[in-house]
TrEMBL record:
The keyword Oxidoreductase applies. The keyword Oxidoreductase applies. GO terms for molecular function: NAD+ binding; oxidoreductase activity, acting on the CH-OH group of donors, NAD or NADP as acceptor. Residues 186-282 form the 3-hydroxyacyl-CoA dehydrogenase C-terminal domain. Pfam families: 3HCDH, 3HCDH_N. GO terms for biological process: fatty acid metabolic process. It comes from Streptomyces roseirectus. This is 3-hydroxyacyl-CoA dehydrogenase family protein. The record marks H140 as: Important for catalytic activity.
Length: 286
């Protein structure tokens, strides 16, 4: 496998494209606007430059240059006409994902495997959008993608063992291992993590504690490297809210009701690190 499509040039999609390119794959990265693609290209350039300063798995200067050249940035889905594998990373909203898969069905060869990089939406539901449900599965990458060695790998109801094997082969080439879990909204990680983050937001909403003190309990008392609210800022508060809404809708259980403060922050454009402001401020980091 050499040519891989990546749909969505946000933080996750850019990370997937970068990781694939440094692993030696030819990558086609698609998004709806040149502006989004240009921002993603700049982010990848900066991350590759920063990675050279890290010990261990950082790419060499030559690797970084080759990786940048290996990525084609385009708004044209026709560039996926010979893709062997496509990773979809668009916003965690059903209406947006529902528009993309029929297009992928039309332009990609029958052999192409589709992987949804989703936080919470069931894979079987996504596969119903295509004419090839046996070739659809989920890969839940973690952020930042190039530096996280493990993912959740989720077969849908109709996913073939061959498609799972192809995905495992691709992940191995990227230096990653897939933990296979059954298809269920939120899978394993986000069934637990989204509840934790949502409840942490409620603690701030109810003035029980400040964001700093909520996170300090987890970092100081439990030794976690990050608190739940800093983690939420890293993932993106919009993604957190959409994921919780999917869980709430899927299970019809009030324990997944989104915190009003989280909704208000997303409405205000406070989406975390990517907008420089979430539960914490990151203005000085840019």
């Amino acid at each position: 496998m050499s040519r891989v499509g990546v749909v969505g040039a946000g933080v996750m999609g850019g990370g997937v494209a970068q990781n694939l390119a440094t692993a030696g794959h030819e990558v086609v990265l698609i998004d709806v606007s040149k502006e989004v693609l240009d921002r993603c290209a700049e982010r990848i350039r900066n991350d590759l430059r920063f990675s050279r300063l890290l010990p261990g798995a950082a790419p060499t200067a030559v690797d970084a240059a080759r990786a940048q050249e290996a990525i084609t940035f385009t708004t044209d889905y026709g560039a996926l006409a010979d893709a062997d594998f496509v990773v979809e990373n668009i916003t965690e909203r059903w209406d947006l994902k529902a528009r993309v898969y029929p297009v992928l069905d039309d332009v990609c060869p029958e052999r192409t495997v589709f992987a949804a990089n989703t936080s919470a939406i069931p894979i079987t539901r996504i596969a119903s959008l295509t004419r090839r449900p046996a070739n659809v599965l989920g890969i839940h990458f973690m952020n930042p993608v190039p530096r996280k060695p493990v993912v959740e790998l989720i077969p849908g109801h109709h996913t073939s063992p061959q498609a799972v094997g192809t995905a495992q082969e691709l992940l191995a080439s990227m230096g990653k291992t897939g933990i296979v879990v059954n298809d269920s909204p939120g899978f394993v990680s986000n069934r637990v993590l989204m509840l934790t983050i949502n409840e942490a937001a409620f603690l701030v909403h109810e003035n029980v504690a400040t964001p700093e003190d909520v996170d300090k309990v987890f970092t100081s008392c439990f030794g976690h490297p990050m608190g739940p609210l800093a983690t939420a800022d890293l993932i993106g508060l919009d993604t957190i809210l959409y994921s919780i809404e999917v869980l709430h809708e899927s299970f019809a259980d009030s324990k997944y009701r989104p915190c009003p403060l989280l909704k208000k922050m997303v409405d205000a454009g406070l989406h975390g690190r990517k907008t420089q402001q979430g539960f914490f401020s990151y203005a000085l980091e840019v």
